[in-house]
Amino acid sequence: MGFNHIKLPRIGCVKTFEILPDNVTPKSVTITKKADRWFVSFKIETASINTEKLVDVVGVDLGVKTLATLSTGEVFDGAKSYKKLESKLSRLQYLNRHKTKFSNNWKKAQLRIAQLHTKVADIRKDTLHKLTTYLAKNHSQIVIEDLNVSGMMANHKLAKAVADMGFYEFRRQLEYKCKLYDSELIVVDRWFPSSKTCSHCGHVKQSLSLSERTFDCEHCGFSCGRDLNAALNLAMAVSSTVTACGLDNADVARSEAGIEQIV
Ligand SMILES: [Zn+2]
User: Fold this and answer.
1) Percent of the chain with pLDDT over 90
2) Is the pLDDT of residue 260 over 70?
3) Ligand 1 center to residue 233 CA distance, Å?
4) Ligand 1 center to residue 128 CA distance, Å?
């Protein structure tokens, strides 16, 4: 059983909405305020949990149209539900533009805007959490691409998508969850041509525009979805070098294949 209050310095006893566990000693406690609500978060030390891994190696291609495509063929859609909230948000901001600053009506509207912002952020974060937990729990090795985020930011169309999907947040969550569930995160060099390479025969295309959603190999005739092809290449970047060189040389082989970092 837990308890439903916490004693804070200066403030004193505060009742919490959720029941708190009573058998852990937090290393640190952080209090934050989002819109009009207060949150308390604890940092605790925990041993890694070894879950049964259903798949050995999985490649993950993050995208703009779909959040993630896995080399197993599974597809994770981005959170669509917040699109409605976003239009509501811009409408509120528009309606609020002529109100007298710091008037009661203005304050009320500002709070409503802040609440909506928080809701949108929460939905995004929740979608990412579901994906990263699923990956870390069920796969021994997860291969992702080190995204050239600064390069992508230069492209305005992509910049919004990158920010929306939370690529940084995706990697941050995956890093700590892999440690928690005893799986390995492998980050492939951003120069690895995962999109342009045929996952069937290894032929590398000269160019592939962003609008081309299907990968058609002119060499072997193989055809599959662009994102799935990229995810398959990421998965193979690891497994092929491991089988070709034996486990002892796996690390060397990885660095030759352009794999940057093993977390
Ligand atoms: Zn091919």
Assistant:
1) 35
2) no
3) 12
4) 32
Identify the pLDDT of residue 130: 94
Tell me, yes or no, if 227 is annotated catalytic: yes
Q: What is the pLDDT of residues 204-213, one digit of tens each?
A: 999 888 788 9
What does the block give as tokens for 177? Answer: 């969850």
Going along the chain, which residue ranges are E strands? 3-8, 12-20, 28-34, 37-43, 55-62, 68-70, 75-76, 139-145, 184-188, 214-216, 223-225, 259-262
Q: Could you report the per-residue pLDDT of 145-187, keeping only the tens digit for each? A: 886 555 555 666 666 666 665 778 889 999 999 999 999 999 9
Kindly report the pTM of this predicted structure.
0.76
Whether 145 is catalytic: yes
Cα 33 → chain centroid:
24
* Residue 66: CA count within 13 A, CB half-sphere: 17
Q: Pairing mode, if any, of strands 55-62 and 68-70?
A: antiparallel
What is d(CA 223, CA 200) in angstroms, rounded to the nearest whole number? 9
List residues, by chain if needed, whose CB lies under 5 Å from ion ligand 1.
198, 200-201, 203, 217, 219-220, 222
Confidence of residue 9 (pLDDT cuts 50, 70, 90): confident
Tell me how many degrees the CA angle 134-174-246 measures, rounded to the nearest 5.
90
What count of other Cβ atoms lies within 10 Å of the Cβ of residue 185?
A: 22
Q: Which of 210, 121, 225, 130 is nearest to 170 (CA)?
A: 130
